[in-house]
């Protein structure tokens, strides 16, 4: 489990850029997302032409090893270049925020620039996308100051957003109809990121409210495009400001006994705590091998659904008190993938966190989960990911 600072810090900087772009204010500074790259392009940027990667068939990509990434915020040329490297490495799935505040900056006003750019590049590369439907657009937020990490005031607004994304990018969707020369990239949708934790669901995780939002969002997705796979948060424990608390998934499923008919899989983030613990370690406060607990809770509710590990990784911030060296990062990632896909047959996919560039600040835990060093060269973990992707390609 990562700190509350990681994705919120990334999103805050990226949204600042998006707001400036929307109102036409020139950017006098660049914000990095822990990957050393800088700000997003303007919404008017054209995609690069004549991609060198041929389209893949219009079916979900095979492969059980994926990458969490932050390409949504990048210029088209960078997305295309990164996805060529990803595909050359044998990886066929990426996980990306499809950020509500960017796609619907004002109620009813839609800006598909960044998402179109990502999906076009995914089509060129033959990569499937697990899109995360998160967080609240400021106008929709229940937070006193319109904070994005508060749930929306009205789940109907979230449902509209979810339906629009599914209708645009699902099989036969609006985007593909507008671009008949593209081979559609497959997409699955995950409802919110880490709602079991206070840093993603302020002021405190609420499994009953999350179940209601899933009901609204999943129903809307099914109506918009029944072929889109839907994932919900399946971690078993709530995480409050004082640390691990009560049951999460059990309370979500108990709150709505019919929820299982709307969803396809459970998403889990089994980061160990302390973070430098091995995926084989049995002494950690929170262990990697808590994944079977998700399966047990789901089966107790009569839900024989696969589990997707949509984030797992180790930071190389060796002076942070939470990091490991690069060789240990590589070993732990390999052990985690092997354990998950060999021992737990119900685990469908494992997404490594993260396809980014480290910031090189060895005291910064969150800035060094990446598979690339600050100078752009690959850490040993990338070779491990490639080897595992080759092994688990079908």
Would you mind describing this structure in some detail?
The chain has 394 residues and is α/β, with parallel strands linked by helices. It has a single domain (6-38, 63-391), classed as Glycosidases (TIM Barrel), CATH 3.20.20. It is 34% helix and 14% strand. The chain has helices at 6-23, 76-88, 100-103, 113-125, 155-169, 174-178, 207-224, 249-255, 291-300, 326-343, 380-391; strands at residues 65-69, 93-97, 128-133, 187-191, 229-233, 237-240, 243-247, 265-268, 307-312, 347-355. The strands form two sheets. An eight-stranded parallel barrel has the order 1-2-3-4-5-8-9-10, surrounded by six helices. A two-stranded antiparallel sheet has the order 6-7. α2 (76-88) runs parallel beside α4 and α5 packs parallel to α7. It is globular.
Please write out the topology:
Elements: H1 6-23, E1 65-69, H2 76-88, E2 93-97, H3 100-103, H4 113-125, E3 128-133, H5 155-169, H6 174-178, E4 187-191, H7 207-224, E5 229-233, E6 237-240, E7 243-247, H8 249-255, E8 265-268, H9 291-300, E9 307-312, H10 326-343, E10 347-355, H11 380-391
Parallel strand pairs: 1-2, 1-10, 2-3, 3-4, 4-5, 5-8, 8-9, 9-10
Antiparallel strand pairs: 6-7
Helix pairs in contact: 2-4, 5-7, 7-8, 10-11
Keywords:
394 residues; alpha/beta; TIM Barrel; 14% strand
Radius of gyration: 19 Å
Give the ordered list of helices and strands. Answer: HEHEHHEHHEHEEEHEHEHEH
Task: Count the E strands.
Answer: 10
CATH architecture assignment: Alpha-Beta Barrel
How far apart, in Å, are the first and last alpha carbons?
Answer: 28 Å
